[in-house]
C-alpha cells in the first residue's frame, strides 16, 4: 500500500489544490475532469485547474516547477490512466448519485491495491460505496482536506465500518509524513469533526450576536486572536468559506442531528444568501466588502445588518478586548470569560455553547478528545481546542456555569463532575470520552510533550533551554517572543556545546516548537546600545554572535538545524552554519538586514559568498569570471529576498542539495535528531576555510557602477546606496586588491563586523530600525 503515484478526479478549487500539494511532496499525479461539450480542448477543465493553482495567492505550489508532476486528462479518454495510481481521490460535485456513478467507473479500471478516497465535506462515506465490491469497500477511506490544503494542517481521515484498519493506518502515515498533514481520525457521522463543531460554533455565535446587540465586526474582535483564535475570527471566516457553504452545511446538519443541536441560521444570514446572493469573498460581498478609496487604497466596509448597507466603521475597538491586550493567552481567556456587560454575556454564551457541544460530541465524531482539539486547531487556526480551553478555565468552573444556565450535562462532563477532576489533560494523561484517565499519546515527536517531563530539561534560561532529546542528542531550544536572538539564546547554544562534550552526547540540534524558528536579532537592544554609544559592548556582542553561529560548523560534534516558519536574519545565519539542515517545507528564510539599514553580521554575508563561489567550476574562480558569484550573493542579500518555501530556499542557495526538507513541521525535530545520530560516528571537526577567492576593487567597481545607475534611475534610495556599498565591500573581500586574492573566513567575518558597526552608527540606519520597530515595515530613506 505504498503510495508513489496518485490521481485526483475533479479539477475545481479543492481538486487542483490537492493535486498541487501532492506535487509539492514529489508525488506524480494525474488530474482528471469532465469534457466540456462545446470546448475543442477536451482537457480544458484539468488544464484550467493547474493554471488556477499556479496563480493562486497564497501560492498552492511551493515551487512552480513542481506543476510538471501533474499530468492532465479527462474522464472520457483517460480513465484508464487510473490503473497506475496507488491512491485515487475524488473532489467532484457534492451529489451522492454523482459520486456513486464515479466509483462504479473507477472500480472497473483501478488496480486492486489502490487506496480510494473521497474529499466530501458532508456526504457520509459509507453511503458513497453502497453497491461496490467488498474488496473496493475494504480499500475505501474518506480524506477530507481543508482549503487551502497547503496551509491548513488538518486532514480528516474517515474510515467506514468496511474499511480495513491497515488501509486507514497506511494512508494516515502517508498523509502525515509525505503530505505533511495533521491527521484526525473521524467517525463517519454528519459533518465529521471540524465542520460539525466549527459550523455549530459559527451558527451559535450569530444567534448570540443578535441577542447581545453586537455587530459582526465587534464579534470578530471578541472571537479572534484575543481568544487565541484565527484573525479571521467568525464572520471573516464565513466570508472566506462562502456563506452558501455554511448555509448548506448548517441546513444539512440541522436535518441530520438531534433537536438539541441547534443549527438554525439567523434571519439576516438567510437574507444574505437567499435574497441578496451576497456569499462572501466569491461574490465580493458578504459580512464585509472590499472597496478602494479615491487614492486607490483598499478599504474594508462593514455590513450593517439592520439596513443591509455597507459602512465605513473605521477601526472597531471592543473594550473587553482592549483590556486584555498584551496578556498571555491563559490570562486573556480567563478575563474574557469573566467579562461584564453585553460583551461578556456574548462570550460566555458562545464559549459555553462550544464547551457543551464539544463534550457532547466526544465519542461521537471521534473517539479521542485530542482529535477534537486538534481538528479545531488545525482546521480553524485556534491556539487551543475546546477541551484545552476548559482546562485553562478549570473544568469544574465550566461545569458550574453550564448548570447555572440550566443545561443538562453531557455524559463526559457528568463524569468529570463526579470525579472532581479539573482538567482533561493532566500529568501525562487525558480522559477518554467516558471520563476515564488514560496515558496521552502525542501524534508526533513534539517538544511540548517532552516539557511535561522536567527531567528532560538539562539547563534553563529565561529565553532558552537545553533539552535532552534522548539517544544521546541535545536540543538548544529558544522560547522568547518571535525567538529574537539575544544573550539567553547565544549562551544557551554555548551551554549545549559544552554539555555535549562534557557529558559525551553525540551532538546537537538547534530548533524549537514556537510559531517561528527565529525572526532575527534583538533590534531594540541593538538600537539602544548604539544610541548610548556603547560601541565596545556592541563590538563584543557581534564577535560573540559570530563565534556562536560559526560554532555550529566548527565544533567537535555534529550540529543539525531544524528551521521552520520565519527564519530571518540571525535565524538564517544559524541555519547556514549547521552541518545539516532539516527544514520544514513551509520555510520563509532570508537575510533581511538591509531592511533596517544593516548587512548580515553573523557570518551570513560570508557564507553566501562562499557557497556561490564553491558552486562555480574551479576555472571560474579567477578574475572577472568570479563576478557572477559575487553578484548572486549581492542580489540575494541586497534585495532582502525571503523564500516562500523550503523548495525555493534551496533554489536560492539558502539550503544545500544535501539538506532535508520535511513536509510536516512536527517531524523536523525527530528527523534532526536522527541526522545527528547518523553523522556522529567518525565525525571529524571541520576547520575554517583559508582559500576563499575574492575580487577586491574590481568587484567593488563593477557593483558600484551598477548601483549608481540604479540610483540615478530612481530604483534605489540615497540610503539604499550607502548600505549597498558596505555590502559590496564585504563581498569583494575588502578594498586594496586589484587582482584576485584568497582570504580566510575570519577575514570576511571581520569585514562583516566592521560594516555592521559602521552602518549602525549612521543616522539613516537608526531611523530605519526605529521605523521598523514602530510600524513593522521598512523605511525607504
TrEMBL record:
GO terms for biological process: fatty acid beta-oxidation. Residues 191-289 form the 3-hydroxyacyl-CoA dehydrogenase C-terminal domain. Residues 480-605 form the Enoyl-CoA hydratase/isomerase domain. The keyword Cytoplasm does not apply. GO terms for molecular function: (3S)-3-hydroxyacyl-CoA dehydrogenase (NAD+) activity; NAD+ binding. Pfam families: 3HCDH, 3HCDH_N, ECH_2. The keyword Glycosyltransferase does not apply. Gene3D superfamilies: 1.10.1040.50, 2-enoyl-CoA Hydratase, Chain A, domain 1 (3.90.226.10), NAD(P)-binding Rossmann-like Domain (3.40.50.720). Residues 1-25 form the signal peptide. It catalyses: a (3S)-3-hydroxyacyl-CoA + NAD(+) = a 3-oxoacyl-CoA + NADH + H(+). InterPro entries: 3-OHacyl-CoA_DH_NAD-bd, 3HC_DH_C, 6-PGluconate_DH-like_C_sf, ClpP/crotonase-like_dom_sf, ECH_dom, NAD(P)-bd_dom_sf. Residues 5-188 form the 3-hydroxyacyl-CoA dehydrogenase NAD binding domain. This is 3-hydroxyacyl-CoA dehydrogenase. The lineage of its organism: Bacteria, Thermotogati, Deinococcota, Deinococci, Deinococcales.
Amino acid at each position: 500500500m505504498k503510495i508513489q503515484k496518485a490521481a485526483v478526479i475533479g479539477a475545481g478549487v479543492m481538486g487542483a489544490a490537492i493535486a498541487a500539494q501532492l506535487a509539492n511532496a514529489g508525488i506524480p499525479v494525474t488530474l482528471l475532469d469532465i469534457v466540456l461539450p462545446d470546448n475543442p480542448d477536451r482537457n480544458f477543465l484539468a488544464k484550467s485547474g493547474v493554471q488556477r493553482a499556479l496563480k493562486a495567492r497564497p501560492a498552492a505550489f511551493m515551487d512552480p516547477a513542481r506543476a510538471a508532476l501533474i499530468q492532465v486528462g479527462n474522464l472520457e479518454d483517460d480513465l484508464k490512466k487510473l490503473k497506475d495510481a496507488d491512491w485515487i481521490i475524488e473532489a467532484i460535485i457534492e451529489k451522492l448519485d454523482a459520486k456513486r456513478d464515479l466509483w462504479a467507473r473507477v472500480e472497473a479500471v483501478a488496480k486492486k491495491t489502490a487506496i480510494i478516497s473521497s474529499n466530501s465535506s458532508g456526504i457520509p462515506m459509507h453511503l458513497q460505496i453502497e453497491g461496490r465490491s467488498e474488496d473496493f469497500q475494504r480499500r475505501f477511506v474518506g480524506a477530507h482536506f481543508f482549503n487551502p490544503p497547503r496551509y491548513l494542517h488538518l486532514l480528516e481521515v474517515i474510515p467506514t465500518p468496511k474499511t480495513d484498519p491497515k488501509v486507514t493506518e497506511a494512508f494516515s502515515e502517508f498523509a502525515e509524513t509525505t503530505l505533511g498533514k495533521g491527521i484526525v481520525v473521524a467517525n463517519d457521522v454528519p459533518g465529521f469533526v471540524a465542520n460539525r463543531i466549527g459550523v455549530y460554533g459559527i451558527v451559535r455565535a450569530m444567534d448570540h450576536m443578535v441577542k447581545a446587540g453586537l455587530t459582526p465586526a465587534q464579534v470578530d474582535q471578541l472571537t479572534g486572536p484575543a481568544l487565541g483564535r484565527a484573525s479571521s475570527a467568525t464572520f471573516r471566516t464565513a466570508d472566506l468559506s462562502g456563506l452558501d457553504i455554511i448555509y448548506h452545511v448548517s441546513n444539512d446538519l440541522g436535518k441530520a442531528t438531534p433537536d438539541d443541536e441547534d443549527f438554525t441560521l439567523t434571519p439576516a444570514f438567510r437574507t444574505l444568501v437567499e435574497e441578496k446572493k451576497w456569499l462572501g469573498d466569491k461574490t465580493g460581498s458578504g459580512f464585509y466588502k472590499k472597496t478602494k478609496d479615491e487614492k486607490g487604497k483598499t478599504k474594508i466596509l462593514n455590513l450593517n445588518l439592520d439596513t443591509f448597507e455597507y459602512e465605513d466603521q473605521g477601526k472597531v475597538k471592543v473594550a473587553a478586548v482592549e483590556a486584555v491586550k498584551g496578556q498571555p493567552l491563559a490570562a486573556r481567556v480567563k478575563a474574557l470569560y469573566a467579562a461584564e456587560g453585553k460583551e461578556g454575556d456574548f462570550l460566555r454564551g458562545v464559549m459555553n455553547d462550544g464547551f457543551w457541544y464539544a463534550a457532547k460530541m466526544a465519542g461521537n465524531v471521534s473517539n479521542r478528545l485530542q482529535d477534537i482539539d486538534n481538528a479545531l486547531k488545525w482546521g480553524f487556526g485556534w491556539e487551543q481546542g475546546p477541551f484545552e480551553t476548559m482546562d485553562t478555565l478549570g473544568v469544574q468552573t465550566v461545569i458550574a456555569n453550564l448548570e447555572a444556565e440550566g443545561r443538562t450535562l453531557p455524559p463526559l462532563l457528568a463524569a468529570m463532575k463526579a470525579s472532581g477532576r479539573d482538567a482533561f489533560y493532566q500529568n501525562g494523561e487525558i480522559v477518554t470520552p467516558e471520563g476515564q484517565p488514560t496515558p496521552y499519546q502525542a501524534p508526533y515527536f513534539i517538544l511540548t510533550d517532552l516539557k511535561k517531563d522536567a527531567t528532560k530539561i538539562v539547563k534553563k534560561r529565561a529565553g532558552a533551554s537545553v533539552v535532552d532529546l534522548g539517544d544521546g542528542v541535545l536540543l538548544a531550544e529558544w522560547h522568547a517572543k518571535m525567538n529574537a536572538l539575544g544573550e539567553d539564546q547565544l549562551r544557551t547554544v554555548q551551554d549545549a556545546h559544552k554539555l555535549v562534550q562534557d557529558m559525551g552526547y553525540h551532538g546537537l540540534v538547534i530548533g524549537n516548537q514556537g510559531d517561528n524558528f527565529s525572526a532575527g536579532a534583538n533590534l531594540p537592544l541593538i538600537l539602544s546600545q548604539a544610541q548610548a554609544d556603547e560601541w565596545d559592548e556592541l563590538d563584543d556582542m557581534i564577535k560573540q554572535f559570530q563565534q556562536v553561529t560559526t560554532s555550529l560548523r566548527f565544533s567537535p560534534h555534529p550540529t543539525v538545524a531544524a528551521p521552520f516558519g520565519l527564519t530571518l536574519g540571525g535565524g538564517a545565519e544559524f541555519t547556514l552554519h549547521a552541518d545539516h539542515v532539516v527544514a520544514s517545507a513551509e520555510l520563509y528564510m532570508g537575510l533581511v538586514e538591509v531592511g533596517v539599514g544593516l548587512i548580515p553580521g553573523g557570518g551570513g554575508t560570508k557564507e553566501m559568498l562562499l557557497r556561490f563561489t564553491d558552486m562555480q567550476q574551479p576555472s571560474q574562480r579567477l578574475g572577472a569570471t568570479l563576478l557572477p558569484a559575487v553578484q548572486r550573493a549581492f542580489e540575494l542579500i541586497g534585495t532582502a529576498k525571503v523564500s516562500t518555501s523550503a523548495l525555493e530556499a534551496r533554489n536560492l542557495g539558502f539550503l544545500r542539495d544535501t539538506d532535508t526538507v520535511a513536509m510536516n513541521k512536527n517531524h523536523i525535530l525527530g528527523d534532526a535528531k536522527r541526522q545527528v545520530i547518523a553523522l556522529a560516528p567518525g565525525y571529524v571537526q571541520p576547520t575554517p576555510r583559508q582559500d576563499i577567492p575574492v575580487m577586491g576593487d574590481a568587484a567593488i567597481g563593477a557593483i558600484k557602477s551598477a548601483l549608481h545607475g540604479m540610483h540615478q534611475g530612481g530604483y534605489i534610495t540615497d540610503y539604499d546606496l550607502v548600505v549597498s556599498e558596505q555590502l559590496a565591500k564585504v563581498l569583494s573581500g575588502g578594498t586594496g586588491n586589484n587582482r584576485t586574492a584568497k582570504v580566510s573566513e575570519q577575514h570576511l567575518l571581520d569585514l562583516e563586523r566592521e560594516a555592521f558597526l559602521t552602518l549602525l552608527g549612521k543616522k539613516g540606519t537608526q531611523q530605519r530600525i526605529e521605523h521598523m520597530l514602530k510600524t513593522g515595515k521598512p523605511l525607504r530613506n
